[in-house]
């Protein structure tokens, strides 16, 4: 059975929710409007319990099935937060908040889980309890971890968790997944280069941190190109570079660079941390300055559990006929924390031929909604089949 | 004969004017109070003409000598301050946060006022002295504004002179050189555009931070490799800013900005050409694009040889320490526009062992006052001697 009819019916409504969320992006834990909207809808749908303030601004909705002989509790999770970026889509429902944008499709994830909640609350065609988990701060804030630290799994006795991410480049209606390590461990770094500022016309009286930091950026490329085992995986990206002054004629005292490291193994993770420190300190010393490195370990590798992955594949195939094996993803995903607490699986949902996630022209494809909702609903109905 | 007696007597008054101006700094084209103070004093001294509002907020004073001739020479002082937070702790420190006379323009203005008072009292010359109190030397083009307002023609100015206090040179010393003395301060911006994307998927993006870093390095070769080592050049990158400031988004673009200093048009041309080629081609090598905006709207300050002789002759009547072959300086000075309009000279007078210009701890040395005022007075009397 492919897409559920009910989701085809609800498509328009769910799309409207999605676009409304899209227009009001909120960053990290500041998902106040989004969380309030989610809680309101969950109550409207008739959820048995709606609890706000889990993991600061996360929302949990509980839907009890027709019966509960199994005593099973299955969690479905969606993320609500947006990115600090400027939207360049030109859509009529584009972000109304300058400097914030739903550039990763979390608006779509939230809308789809809401649609699924509506359907499950209407039909309750399962034996057990379904827990709808709406988390903030997936983008670097560890919102999922905060919800776990608030005792969410224990409070509702959750046995398994499932989640989904839209995937540009894969056709709408298709799925992909892999068992075991799937998404990378994500670390962040802040490096401050300190030199000696001064007048731009007298470089010989300064220690030029811009040149120093530029050399460091170039040297950092060698971690991937020369230090890492070529059959393992690593990404080292410098994503921000800012001089402490912006005048045309002042050599800045300080430059700050930031970035991210992605690895699939502890060896590569440790290597990256070590080399970043050695390279930046060495280059700073070469030019007569100093470097201070702040390396922040972020999300762990996200690993799909084999049994739940097989089940996820089964559900995907029943909706779209097929399910591809996904390649490793160097992106991070804080669903990794939930998968460390409970068994479960995370699947990819085709978003069609759109711009990549995190691109200023990216947009979640509303055409994917019925497929995504169907999968989420089927996970509950097939994992906790009605008697 | 050293410092004129009358000027030694006036020292305390002039120093008080200087400190008053120091406590009330105004930025370019906002010098309303300073100009008002200057105009009031010039009228008090008995100048034959006092005109305000020239070239924006500039003030012109005219003193006709006893001789009655129609030759005129001009003296110029700059009035504007800098957007810097004063850190001297002096009793007369700036009363305006974020503004400071960190370049000694308060001293220049006070010295020219002192000279004006003396010349208005004595009038021992044949012709007119035109006093140009100009606004906006620091990046605002105040000199050009006064020239374009027609000051040279209106008052029949034949020669124009100015001075700058110079930290590091002992009080009582003078320095100058014929030909190029101060650099043309060009400004540039390089916009590096690539393809933004996810920090974990560099292969799908075009990394503008890396490309821009490579450009920073490439630009170092202009001074080290392209310009004749016997010529003078500075290429400083002072601002480097990625268009987004996150840990995991590769920015779509990076903006570099900075300054170029040269003493000769042919060197300036070479630098501009090399900068354009290096930026464009380095970016291209990385699959990115670089667009150079080069702003060359200022000129090299060139002292005419006869002007230097006149200036040195007047200086030698006050001091034995007169250097006429000083090394050129790569800082910019907009008096260059006045020297472009009329022959003359711009000289440096010692400020003693103070902090550097533009430093928050810089202090104009009031002990230099008699030397500056005497020099202007001597110039008037030696360039336009009574019959």
Summarize it.
Chain A is of the alpha/beta class.
Structure report:
The complex is a heterodimer of chains A (387) and B (387). Chain A has helices at residues 5-23, 32-45, 106-123, 143-149, 152-155, 209-227, 266-286, 306-320, 335-341, 369-383; strands at residues 49-54, 58-64, 73-79, 129-135, 160-167, 175-177, 180-183, 185-194, 198-199, 234-243, 250-251, 254-263, 290-299, 302-304, 324-325, 344-350. Chain A is α/β, with parallel strands linked by helices. Chain A has two domains: 5-182 and 301-383, Aminopeptidase; 185-299, Alpha-Beta Plaits, CATH 3.30.70.360. In chain A, the strands form four sheets. Chain A has an eight-stranded mixed sheet with strand order 1-2-4-3-5-16-6-15, sandwiched between helices. The longest helix of chain A has 21 residues, at 266-286. Helix content of chain B is 35%, strand content 25%. In chain B, helix 1 (5-23) runs antiparallel to helix 3 (105-122). The longest helix of chain B has 21 residues, at 265-285. The model of chain B has no long low-confidence stretch (mean pLDDT 95).
Q: What name does the CATH topology of the largest domain in chain A carry?
A: Aminopeptidase
Helix amount of chain A: 25-40%
Spatial strand order of the main sheet of chain B: 1-2-4-3-5-16-6-15
Give the topology string of chain A: H per helix, E per strand: HHEEEHEHHEEEEEHEEEHEEHEHEH
Tally of individual domains of chain A: 2
What count of helical segments of chain A does DSSP give?
Answer: 10
CATH C-level class of the largest domain in chain A: Alpha Beta
Characteristics:
heterodimer; A: 387 residues; alpha/beta; Aminopeptidase; Alpha-Beta Plaits; four-stranded antiparallel β-sheet; 10 helices; 16 strands; 36% helix; B: 387 residues; 2 domains; 25% strand
């Amino acid at each position: 059975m492919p897409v559920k009819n009910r989701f085809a019916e609800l498509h328009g409504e769910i799309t409207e929710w999605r676009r409304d969320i899209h227009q009001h992006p909120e960053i990290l834990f500041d998902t106040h409007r989004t969380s309030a909207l989610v809680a309101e809808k969950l109550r409207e749908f008739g959820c048995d319990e709606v609890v706000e303030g889990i993991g600061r601004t996360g929302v949990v909705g509980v839907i009890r099935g027709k019966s509960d002989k199994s005593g099973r509790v299955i969690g479905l999770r969606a993320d609500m937060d947006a990115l600090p970026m400027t939207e360049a889509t030109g859509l009529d429902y584009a972000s109304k908040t300058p400097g914030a944008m739903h550039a990763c499709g979390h608006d779509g994830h939230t809308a789809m889980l809401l649609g699924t909640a509506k359907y499950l609350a209407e039909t309750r065609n399962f034996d057990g309890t379904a827990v709808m988990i709406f988390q903030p701060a997936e983008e670097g804030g560890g919102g999922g971890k905060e919800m776990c630290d608030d005792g969410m799994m224990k409070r509702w006795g959750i046995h398994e968790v499932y989640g989904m991410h839209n995937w540009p480049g894969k056709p709408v209606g298709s799925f992909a997944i892999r068992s075991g390590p799937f998404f990378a461990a994500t670390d962040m770094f802040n490096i401050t280069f300190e030199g000696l500022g001064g007048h731009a016309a007298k470089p010989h009286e300064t220690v030029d941190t811009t040149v120093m930091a530029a050399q460091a950026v170039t040297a950092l490329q060698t971690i991937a190109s020369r230090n890492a085992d070529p059959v393992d995986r690593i990404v080292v990206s410098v994503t921000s570079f800012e001089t402490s002054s912006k005048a045309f004629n002042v050599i800045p005292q300080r430059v700050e660079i930031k970035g991210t490291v992605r690895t699939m193994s502890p060896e590569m993770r440790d290597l990256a941390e070590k080399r970043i420190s050695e390279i930046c300190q060495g280059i700073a010393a070469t030019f007569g300055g100093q470097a201070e490195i702040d390396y922040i370990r972020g999300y762990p590798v996200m690993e799909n559990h084999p049994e739940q992955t097989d089940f996820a594949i089964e559900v995907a195939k029943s909706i779209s006929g097929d399910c591809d094996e996904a390649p490793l993803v160097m992106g991070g995903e804080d669903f990794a924390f939930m998968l460390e607490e409970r068994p479960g699986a995370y699947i990819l949902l085709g978003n069609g031929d759109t711009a990549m996630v995190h691109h200023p022209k990216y947009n979640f494809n509303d055409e994917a909604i019925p497929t995504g909702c169907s999968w989420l609903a089927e996970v509950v109905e097939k994992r906790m089949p009605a008697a | 004969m050293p410092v004129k007696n009358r000027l030694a007597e006036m020292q305390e008054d002039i120093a008080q004017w200087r400190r008053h101006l120091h406590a009330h700094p105004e930025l370019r084209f906002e010098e309303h109070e300073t100009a008002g103070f200057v105009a009031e004093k010039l009228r008090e001294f008995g100048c034959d003409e006092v005109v305000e509002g020239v070239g924006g907020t500039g003030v012109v004073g005219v003193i006709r000598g006893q001789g009655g001739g129609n030759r005129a020479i001009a003296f110029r002082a700059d009035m504007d301050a800098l957007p810097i937070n004063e850190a001297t702790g002096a009793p007369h420190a700036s009363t305006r946060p974020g503004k400071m006379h960190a370049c000694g323009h308060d001293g220049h203005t006070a010295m020219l006022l002192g000279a004006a008072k003396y010349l208005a009292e004595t009038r021992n010359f044949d012709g007119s002295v035109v006093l140009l109190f100009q606004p906006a030397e620091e990046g605002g083009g105040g000199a050009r504004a006064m020239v374009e307002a027609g000051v040279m023609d209106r008052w029949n100015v034949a020669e124009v002179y100015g001075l700058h206090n110079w930290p590091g040179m002992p009080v009582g010393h003078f320095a100058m050189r014929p030909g190029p003395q101060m650099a043309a301060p060009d400004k540039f911006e390089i916009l590096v555009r690539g393809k933004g994307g996810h920090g974990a998927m560099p292969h799908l993006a075009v990394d503008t931070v890396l490309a821009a870093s490579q450009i920073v390095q490439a630009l170092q070769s202009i001074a080290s490799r392209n310009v004749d080592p016997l010529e003078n050049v500075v290429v400083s990158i002072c601002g480097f800013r990625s268009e987004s400031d996150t840990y995991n988004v590769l920015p779509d673009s990076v903006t570099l900005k900075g300054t170029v200093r040269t003493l000769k048009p042919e060197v300036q041309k070479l630098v501009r050409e090399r900068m354009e080629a290096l930026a464009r081609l380095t970016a291209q090598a990385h699959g990115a694009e670089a667009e150079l905006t080069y702003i060359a709207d200022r000129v090299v300050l060139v002292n005419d040889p006869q002007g230097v002789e006149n200036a040195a002759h007047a200086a030698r009547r006050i001091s034995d320490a007169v250097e006429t072959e000083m090394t050129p300086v790569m800082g910019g000075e907009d008096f260059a526009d006045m020297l472009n309009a009329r022959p003359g000279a711009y000289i440096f007078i010692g400020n003693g062992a103070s902090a550097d210009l533009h430093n928050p701890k810089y202090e104009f040395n009031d002990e230099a006052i008699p030397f500056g005022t005497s020099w202007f007075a001597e110039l008037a009397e030696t360039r336009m001697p009574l019959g």
